[in-house]
């Protein structure tokens, strides 16, 4: 009989609850084996605007995991399907082939929840046990609530409550599983008549996918860099952040492993409020905050703003300005450098995500949902809850968002966070020769040849945006 582990956003063998429990159950029974399963669904991924680089990372990670699990006597069957609806067919074939139980980690997005509900019902009708593990967050949704039992809408009290829970418990991680019986996957695939997962195009090759390498990155960060995190995290020209987001998003790493390692390496520093370690922990709590919000307010998936009155804002539908923003041709060097970092590498520094999002919404008055979708289609760490949360924060439409009258000045931001212009020079070669402070605003005398003129006047844009918000706030 087969104990099937359906891997989705938990592509790791350490600290994997589903793998752990499936292996324990199979090893306890005679003639039982564990089968890990991954189903590539490119049509659904595309519908979710998943970036090609993120899709490639998933495929590379699954192939790597196949080798890693084989050394633990566990076979991983990687299949190519099209959309989520194909998953039901695969499970009905597996049921016929002797599947007795399913194990998996829950997901919070609407379509994923719907898919899992249907598969659960289908399998239960066939007397197959289904086990879901809610381990996307350290504190799962529903466990951190206000005194009246509601989901927090403001981060600071959420964080306070979260931290008090952390103090009450020890974060445990599951060890690597080892199975006693190895399934012959080739034979099984033939029997089922299913298609093997295709390779990606390798565009994510700069991101290593071996689990040990990723764990080493986490350890290295906690040992050598986290102490300086609070001082360096806002400067895109230096490597001051962990760059682990892509791994957290597809689950090569769990948040539990991050906190566990942080506690081990940073220890007492975690008790100091502004230490690098406690500020980094705060970022992991933001990750959980947005996931809790998403589960409590599923309307967010339907592109609704969290603050209902902001739905009345009439954003500009200007495709020319939007294209200039996407391509990094706005004439604002820090915005252009940031957008080119995203386009060239699939990742963008957090400070720059805030600056570029604010620029699209508050300097160009373009709908934040256009930007949200564009980010998703490019980011290697694209993740609905964090991306939607970040965009609604910047657009002042979200929960605990930036107040609408707080409008970033892109030139001042540039002077503060890229003081020497090193980051700009790296990504905007047309103005790399510009000396000194002029790099932040090279149009003073005349726009350098080869560089684009500014597409908007910040002071004018600011007034228009304030008027747009005041209008909807007044009528509220
Ligand atoms: P670190 O600074 O090392 O932080 C550690 C981890 O904490 C990150 O890997 C991430 O998992 C989590 N984290 C950090 N900041 C946030 C945050 N503000 N909200 C939620 N989680 C956070 N993050 C994503 O993972 N996916 C996204 O699609 C995404 N879209 C964003 C869009 C906008 C407009 C904004 C403003 C932020 C977005 N973020 C997103 C949050 C943040 O920018 C990235 O998590 C961070 O830049 C990743 O780099 P890092 O791993 O070096 O982060």
TrEMBL record:
Main EC class the enzyme belongs to: lyase
InterPro entries: Cryptochr/Photolyase_FAD-bd, Cryptochrome/DNA_photolyase_1, DNA_photolyase_1_CS_C, DNA_photolyase_N
EC number(s) on file: 4.1.99.3
Record's keyword annotation contains Cell membrane: no
Pfam family for this entry, one: DNA_photolyase
Domain Photolyase/cryptochrome alpha/beta span(s) in chain numbering: 1-138
An example molecular function term from Gene Ontology annotations: deoxyribodipyrimidine photo-lyase activity
Keyword Lyase in annotation: yes
Keywords, alphabetical: Chromophore, Lyase
Family: Belongs to the DNA photolyase class-1 family.
Protein name (Swiss-Prot/TrEMBL): Deoxyribodipyrimidine photo-lyase
Species, as recorded: Arsukibacterium indicum
Organism taxonomic ancestry: Bacteria, Pseudomonadati, Pseudomonadota, Gammaproteobacteria, Chromatiales
Gene name for this UniProt entry: phrB
